[in-house]
Design brief:
alpha+beta; two-stranded antiparallel sheet; 9 strands; about 5% strand; disordered N terminus
């Protein structure tokens, strides 16, 4: 008889007690007390585990261990989120300190030999002969014991002490790096408002800039001399490097000088402080890898992933480069010829020119102006549309929670209700989500999904948040979004659905996004592809003034234009992945961060490098993903293969969306990622879908 994991069903739909989540805390002192309560609970669970005198069992060993992990996860994830989002600097400071304390506690557990020996003894007893533990439990033990060995639990006491010290240092350096980027918002003063020519009218109005009457021609087609008096402002305009202000400048500003200033300011964030912080962090990781018996951090960081090793990673990146190179050359040649016809003085194209001239190319050659679709994407409609899309695809409903305690005004909360036909929990609440979607002072300037509470089947519902920086609706300003913003929103919501739908596991350590690290971007990148479905998008893409849906021909041109430049963008991702790998695969003492960055751009980018580009000082993925930024590319390959299984014309009648939910999202981390791939595709993933995706625009031509 095959063993199964006994998973009790949820019979009620609570989201535990309201004090379990940090947003209700008033300040730093309360935060410290809240974290200490969770740490004390984790210590108590481990003490109970170690006090057991009977033979090890799932109940007396794995249950208390998993409960300790749940408490550490609660403290760690919410400290991390409050560090990113809390409006009070004192709470962000406390979160930074507490994250280091929690990190030290987690490292101590990972080096606790007695706990390791108890878990190993349990594993041995379960694998000797027949076991009723079930495959998910055995897989959990396998992964846990591997993580213990990779943490150095089997090293001598002196080595373990050094590992603890290095881990504490790495946590502190990582938090320092991220905090510097988070707080370093650069500002640009624009004395002549005509430098803002080409920017959308709502952008100009938001900055107190107005077009004088009598200007009827398109700013993108005119010279700055002929428009010298067409824009006016009462005072110099201040722009910031926050995404809603930076992105339009890079895409639409006709002034190459303004674009260059913004590019340099954005890519200079975190410098010079983070240069040495990063070098120190890389040195600590290198020493850690050496202590654990690995050639480099890159080998250590990939050994328990789908990738397996740094050597396999290099081979994969070479494959992707080979797949994209020919099409990228063709894309850039077309763009370069277009610029030569329009403005020969703009050659050679630099990295600060890229977005602007790609936009101009799409307007002229592909008959698509990305500004033209912004009126169809006011923020409120996009939010409602993505909720509706996710509901339709994944069989859920979203119920607003008006009385939820949140950390800042404007954060929205929804309970997620199961609405899938045949579900064992139909009509019940299966999770809660928090949407923190607009910039504010002190908040992280990136776009991310963050776990708040790990789900445990029958005990605790999962809760998660989106932390984003989309345009803020304000009064008469509807917060119009670029179509690329909407794609990003789809991406992050894919993570959110994985967190919630995968959050009904027996073990907290397998809940939500607990798969191998190089599978976590699959659900997010798969959901992005649905932005090419006209039926789904036209359901919410309506003009904010007239209510008319986006015209079908405009939508078709938008999708086609979005396909142009994919090969160039793919090579950029290869460059970032290579930089991430090389910084962790070379001796830190001799590492030249600037030289390595320049070499990467020279190899993978067709655009001319902009001197002074120090993007590594704000490349926060080097903290979180370390050497494994390749995850985005690796998972794109899988995501595109997954998406090819969907028939958009028969989406409403197709069983595929529900099958995807059951076979990919709901297992969370209870199965190896390769099993999830094989279960959904019926085979291993290949490069074929990526090849088609990269060449789609040219194939259509």
């Amino acid at each position: 008889m095959q063993a199964v994991d006994q998973q009790p069903r949820i019979t009620a739909s609570p989201v535990a007690d309201p004090l379990h989540i940090w947003p209700g805390l008033a300040g730093a002192a309360e935060a410290e007390a809240w974290v200490e309560d969770h740490l004390a609970a984790a210590r108590s669970a481990i003490a109970g585990l170690l006090a057991v005198t009977e033979p090890p069992s799932v109940e007396n060993t794995l249950v208390p261990y998993d409960r300790a992990r749940w408490h550490l996860g609660m403290a760690g994830s919410q400290s991390g989120v409050m560090f990113m989002v809390h409006p009070l600097a004192e709470v962000r400071d406390a979160a930074q300190r507490l994250s280091q304390v929690i990190g030290a506690e987690s490292v101590a557990l990972s080096l606790n030999r007695e706990v390791y020996q108890a878990l190993a003894a349990l594993h041995a007893s379960l694998t000797e002969g027949s076991s009723a533990a079930g495959p998910a439990t055995l897989y959990y033990l396998d992964r846990t014991l591997l993580s213990y060995r990779l943490s150095g639990v089997d090293k001598d006491e002196a080595t373990r002490q050094r590992i603890r010290s290095l881990a504490d240092r790495m946590t502190a350096l990582g938090m320092s790096f991220s905090r510097t980027v988070q707080d370093d918002v650069r500002k640009i003063t624009v004395a002549d408002p005509n430098e803002l020519l080409g920017l959308p009218e709502d952008y100009l109005a938001r900055h107190g800039v107005h077009r004088v009457q009598g200007s009827t021609s398109s700013p993108a087609d005119e010279s700055s001399d002929s428009l010298a008096q067409h824009l006016v402002a009462a005072a110099p305009v201040t722009l910031t490097t926050d995404p809603p202000e930076m992105t339009p400048v890079m895409s639409y500003a006709t002034s190459p000088q303004l674009r260059r200033r913004m590019y340099q300011a954005y890519n200079d964030r975190g410098y010079p402080a983070n240069r040495q912080v990063l070098l120190d962090l890389l040195a600590a990781r290198e020493e850690m890898a050496t202590l654990l018996g690995f050639r480099s951090w890159a080998d250590l960081a990939t050994v328990d992933q789908m990738m397996g090793s740094a050597a396999h990673l290099r081979s994969f990146l070479d494959q992707v480069e080979s797949t994209a190179r020919e099409t990228a050359q063709r894309e850039f040649a077309e763009l370069e010829e277009f610029v030569r016809e329009r403005d020969p003085g703009a050659l050679p194209l630099t990295l600060s020119d890229a977005r602007f001239w790609e936009e101009q190319f799409r307007r002229s050659r592909l008959d698509f102006d990305s500004q033209s679709v912004r009126p169809y994407f006011p923020y409120a409609q996009v939010e409602a549309g993505i909720l509706a899309t996710a509901g339709r695809l994944f069989g859920v409903k979203f119920a607003p929670v008006e009385d939820a305690v949140v950390w800042a005004p404007g954060v929205k909360v929804f309970d997620v209700i199961d609405d899938a036909p045949g579900s064992a929990v139909l009509g019940q609440t299966i999770g809660r989500i928090y949407l923190d979607m607009h910039p504010r002072e002190g908040k992280s300037k990136w776009f991310s999904e963050c776990s708040l509470v790990s789900g445990v089947l029958g005990r605790q519902l999962p809760e998660a948040s989106l932390v984003c920086n989309f345009p803020q609706p304000n009064g008469s300003d509807p917060g119009l979004m670029l179509y690329s913003d909407v794609v990003t929103c789809f991406h992050e919501f894919g993570h959110l659905m994985h967190e919630v739908l995968g959050g009904r596991q027996r073990w907290a350590g397998q809940s939500g996004i607990s798969t191998e690290g190089d599978f976590v971007e699959v659900p997010s990148q798969m959901l992005e592809e649905f932005f090419a479905d006209p039926e789904l998008v036209r359901g919410f893409a309506r003009h904010y003034q007239t209510g008319e849906p986006i015209p079908q021909d405009v939508f078709a041109r938008m999708v086609r234009a979005g396909a142009h430049g994919r090969a160039l963008a793919t090579l950029t991702q290869v460059m970032y992945a290579t930089y991430s790998l090389e910084t962790h695969d070379q001796p830190a003492a001799t590492l030249d961060l600037d030289g390595l960055l320049r070499a990467g751009y020279d190899r993978f980018s067709y655009y001319q490098f902009v001197e002074g580009n120090r993007m590594y000082a704000a490349f926060t993925h080097l903290v979180g993903y370390t050497s494994n930024y390749y995850t985005y590319l690796y998972d794109k390959v899988i995501a595109l293969e997954f998406f090819s299984e969907f028939d958009l014309k028969l989406l409403s009648e197709s069983p595929t969306p529900l099958r995807y939910r059951r076979e990919v999202l709901e297992p969370g981390g209870s199965k190896p990622a390769r099993e999830l791939v094989r279960a959904f595709l019926g085979r291993e993933a290949s490069m074929s879908a990526l090849k088609s995706w990269i060449a789609r625009e040219f194939d259509a031509s």
